[in-house]
Amino acid sequence: MNVFRHLTAGLKELVRRDKTERELSEELNAYLHNAADAKVQAGATPEEALRSARLELGGMEAVKYEVRAVGWEFALEVLMQDIRYGVRMLRKSPLITAVAVTAIAIGIGANTAIFSLVDAILLRPLPYPESQRLIVGGTQQRGGSGMDLMGTADFLAWRDHQQSFEEVAVLDQASRSFALSGMGAPERIPGVRVSANFFSIFGVAPLKGRGFQPGEDRPGTPGVVVISEQFWRDHVGSDPEVLNRALTLDGKLHTIVGVMPAGFRFPSRRPVDVWAIHTLNPPTARPPYGLVGLGRLKPGVNIREAAAELNDIAAQVTAQYPSSPDLVGVMMPMKEWMISNVSTALLVLLGAIALVLLIVVVNVANLLLARATVRQREVAVRMALGASRKRVVRQLLTESAVLSLLGGVIGLLLAYIAVRAFLAFGPGQMPRLEEVGINSGVLLFTFVVCVGSGILFGLAPALETSRPSLIEPLKDTNRSSSSASAYRTHRALLVFEVALALIVMIGSGLLVRSFVRLSDVSPGIQTDHVITAAISLPNKYADPPQITQFWQQFLEKVQTLPGVKAAGITMSLPPNLLAITNPFRVEGQDYDRNHPLQLAEEMTVSPGYFRSLGIPLMKGRFFSPSDKVESIKDPMIVIINETMAKQHFGSKDPVGFRIQTGDPDPSSPWETIVGVVGDVKYSGLDSGPGPTLYVPYNENGWAMWAREMYLVVRSNGSAPGIVPAIRTQLESMDSTIPLAQIRTMDELLDESLVQQRFRTWLVSGFAALALLLSAIGIYGLISYSVSQRTREIGVRIALGAQGSNVLGLVLRDVLQVLAFGLLLGLVGALSATRIMRSLLYSTSATDALSFVVPSFTLIAVALLACYVPARRATKVDPMVALRYE
Amino acid sequence: MTDKNTSLVQGTLDMLILKTLALEPMHAHGIGVRIEQISKGVFQVNPGSLFPAFKRLERAGWLDSEWRATENNRRGKYYVLTASGRKQLKSETRDWKTQSVAIARILEA
Q1: pLDDT reading at A478 higher than 70
Q2: Stretch A540-548: mean pLDDT, rounded?
Q3: CA neighbours within 13 Å on the CB side: how many for A764?
Q4: A210, A242 Cβ separation under 8 angstroms
Q5: Contacts of residue A5 in chain B, CB cutoff 8 Å?
Q6: B29 and A31 in contact by Cβ < 8 A?
Q7: Are B5 and B32 in contact (CB under 8 A)?
Q8: Which of A86, A489, A557, A686 has its CA 20 to 30 A from that of A645?
Q9: Interchain contact B59–A (C-beta under 8 A)
Q10: Which residue in B27, B36, B59 has the most chain A C-beta atoms within 10 A of its own C-beta, making it the best mutation to test that interface?
Q11: Same domain, A135 and A23
Q12: Yes or no, beta carbons of A58 and B2 under 8 Å apart
């Protein structure tokens, strides 16, 4: 109740300030007269009495001030006063204010933009209820690292025997999109296959209808799908009767049973429009391993217990399939799984932009310092009249806070634009992008950063200006008071600024070097004039002969098109679209159960594939259409790559030797090596060399895998020019199959580097900004120093100093600042860049060139920045300089 | 700035004001005179500390104020002790007595 009374009384006085003021004056006057009357009664004259009473009171205004200071509303009044005064002062020096506000706006805006990314992607929990209980699970060979996918056998065992989870489900990692037909032109839409309990794990209620129900993933049940709200709007026209409508995906009919709301696009690395049911066929063997396990832990169960349980279950499955490797269970929280590949990069970006903001703060501090010396007289007068240092500092800090809040508001606007631009044009492959936006957490961050920077850059000038010694500033001279300590602070801040700028520049240098090296990596193919596309055969191509026949005919047709040099199909596309890996053993090698299996990148291809991509033949031969491989009695053939040849055969010719692939099984069919080709990158340009196996797509046992393939065509002329012809051929064979993901090989290479390119450009942008700010800072320092020392320089010149002497005098400061700044920066960079190691390709975090070039650039730019003021110093006319005292 | 060099600590001044007003409502000058009178001149209250004290006590709810006609037909602001003010006076008096007994004991030990 007390608080309430305080509040209302204060508000009343705020509103009726005049009335309160008048009453207080009246009361004090009454006091005065009463006191005077008493003295008169004691024998003094009326004038003496009044005078003595006044002296006792001690100054009407002072007493009024003390009375007013009792109420809480007084602090508010003082704040408003300080703000008004601050704004007036800022308007008096519009150029400095404008520069400062711009710098702050850029610094805060950039930080807010990056922070909104970090907040949405790294910090905030996933947008599902109790998301910390969501887990992703997989298997891994004993002794291996990381998490690999699990197989159907493992999942079924896990699902039926686990006790730690409320629900478990799987997602088919290989399913990225479906061919949609029957709704206008055939097209590919992003989608995944998931098992029945998928939706209940997330706890997100569908917009319409339902998720999948247990049992719908059994073989033989009709296909069901759930669509996204986006898809519902775009493709079904938000039809309220959408449930139970039919959809044809990959040639099979599915029924729509639900619509998920707009926020749910899991897995959001590629926002999904369609979730189709993944049928769990009873496994005949442990592989293939293509499923991502998902689950919601029961309350109170922790992830380690769950992982241990999966271990035990996996061991049982190993016992069931004795020829399979010994697998262990691996689990990680779902959020970690989603963000692991971008967290380092984002944190590095945040670190870099924070450094830039610090540089901005230092620059603004120096700006204010320079202006502060101009205001010293005003402040000295105020302090002489009785203002406490605390009061003056508080007012100056309020001024800085106004400056930084102004900059912050503009910065927020810039950040909003930047985030929108990033979402529209940036690298789209980051997870959780749909959650990015400027929300209350980001606003709070901006506010804190604003106030923090305001205090940081305002403190030095405020303390400097309000020094207790008032004599110098009040002396009546025109000579601008050379505050030595202000200059020292200015210089120290500049050293810090140079160091920070150098750190950001070195970081950018490392990224640039790494990126250049990466983009120079040869993918092992000839990338010019090559067009690629994805083709997916619907379910009506149900057995190997149908599949093989389709491809044979199609490839023949395409190869005869004018302008086509070579054509082929493949399961995996360079540089980074690898589909599967497979373990293998070379004949004569011993198999040790306890060591992790060696894996090769394996893919099925048509004979024309190698020629289409210009992959060189080193030994032996390519596949040929006359190879007989389709029947189970035909010998299996395989082509290996150079790395595998070197690793397992040394200098011997591998052609003719045999290998086995798949899970270790002594009775596996032997495959004969018929050729060796050059290395090609399938796992990204930054992947190391490894063994690669090629098999004919129509080889026995592999044909069923050839339903989803990439087409590669080498053309004589422009690659995109032959696309219409190819499309016509495809349509003539089967009009329900779309030609999807049409890109040239050059485009594919570009796309694989999108993330790295974006990072490099962004940090280089920061570095350029940092360099510019430092140059401005140095220019400011030297101009200031020269203007302060004009008299001194005039005297020196009058006494015979040459231009070079003056130059040396002026530059000595800069060189000192540069020396210390570079030293500090180099040391800082050595420790800071260690964090970036995982982002660098074949470049050490202490790469010499990346340290040396930015250092010299900084020195050169700094010297350039001094040029004008330094020259001005040499041109000082001693007569003019000495004339004005 | 005004010196707060009254020989009275702020808390003690509050208590004395409350006590003075326990007898009858008074205006500022009257309170100062009364305190000086009753303490036989030991405490001479500085008006610079009186007026902020009044506002403090009013905000705390222990005093009320009203404008009345004074002896010389002028308007004066009179302060009145409220019920909670009376309670506060009692508790402060009790605390003060406990403290002074303890201090006396220490000084004579």
Answers
A1: no
A2: 88
A3: 14
A4: no
A5: 59, 61
A6: yes
A7: no
A8: A686
A9: yes
A10: B59
A11: no
A12: yes
Closest residue, chain B, to A53 (C-alpha)? B47
Whether B1 is covered by a domain: the verdict is no
Rounded to 5 degrees, what are φ and ψ at B63? -125, 150
B residues 14-33 closer than 8 Å to A (CB): 27-30, 33
Verify whether the Cβ–Cβ distance B33 to A26 is below 8 Å: no
Residue B51 lies in a domain: yes
| pLDDT the model gives residue A526 | 92
Q: Which residues does residue A604 pair with via DSSP β-bridges, in sequence order?
A: A695
Does residue B3 fall inside a structural domain?
no
Q: Is A28 on the interface with B (CB under 8 A)?
A: yes
Q: Are residues A242 and A317 in the same domain?
A: yes
Closest CA to A147 of A266, A294, A267: A294
Q: Is pLDDT of A871 > 70?
A: yes
N residues, chain B? 109
CB-based contact, B70 to chain A, within 8 Å? yes
Domain that holds residue B32: 10-108
Flag if A30 and B27 touch (Cβ within 8 Å). yes
Q: Is B65 on the interface with A (CB under 8 A)?
A: no
The percent of residues above 70 in pLDDT, for chain A, comes to: 96
A796 shares a domain with A698: no
Residue A137 in any domain: the answer is: yes
Q: Which residues contact A871 (CB under 8 A, 6 or more apart)?
A: none
pTM to 2 decimals? 0.75
Residues from chain B that touch A23, judged by Cβ atoms under 8 A, are: 67, 77
- Of all helices (H) and strands (E), which one includes residue A124? none
Q: Is the residue at A21 inside a domain?
A: yes
Closest alpha carbon to A451 in A509, A487, A392, A409: A409
Q: Tell me: the pLDDT tens digits for A155-173?
A: 999 999 988 999 899 988 7
SS3 at position A183? coil
Write out pLDDT tens, residues A241-288.
888 888 888 778 889 999 998 878 888 767 788 998 888 888 888 877
Pairwise CA distance, residues A542 & A545, whole Å: 9
Q: Is the pLDDT assigned to residue A517 strictly greater than 80?
A: yes
- Rounded Cα distance between A336 and A279, Å, is 28
Same-domain pairing of A683 and A782: no
Note whether B38 contacts A: Cβ–Cβ < 8 A: no
Q: Which chain A residues are closer than 8 Å to B49 by Cβ?
A: 66
A11 and chain B: CB distance < 8 Å anywhere?
Answer: no
Give CA A600 to chain center in angstroms: 32
Q: What is the pLDDT of residue A474?
A: 64
* In a shared domain, residues A679 and A800: no
> In this complex, is the C-beta atom of B69 within 8 Å of any C-beta atom belonging to chain A?
no
Interface predicted TM-score of the whole assembly (ipTM), two decimals:
0.85
Residue A378 contacts B where some CB pair is shorter than 8 Å: no
Question: How many independent structural domains does chain A possess?
Answer: 4
Task: Answer yes or no: are the C-beta atoms of A369 and A486 closer than 8 Å.
Answer: yes
> Which residue range(s) make up the domain with A260?
131-339
Per the CB < 8 A criterion, the answer to whether A194 and A272 are in contact is: no
pLDDT at B3: 40
State the smallest CA–CA distance between residue B38 and chain A in angstroms. Answer: 17
CA distance A486 to chain B (A): 29
Q: What are phi and psi of A563, to 5 degrees?
A: 90, -5
Residue of B nearest to A31 (CA): B29
Tell me how many domains chain B contains: 1
What gap in Å lies between CA A524 and CA A685, rounded to an integer?
Answer: 10
The secondary structure of chain A in percent helix, strand, coil, rounded to multiples of 5, reads: 55, 15, 30
The CATH number assigned to the domain holding B44 equals: 1.10.10.10
Same domain? For A661 and A800 the reply is no
Whether A425 is covered by a domain: the verdict is: no
CA–CA min distance A78, chain B (Å): 16
Q: A856 and A775 share a domain?
A: yes
CB neighbours (10 Å) of residue A396? 26
- Reported as a pLDDT band with limits 50, 70 and 90, residue B79 is very high
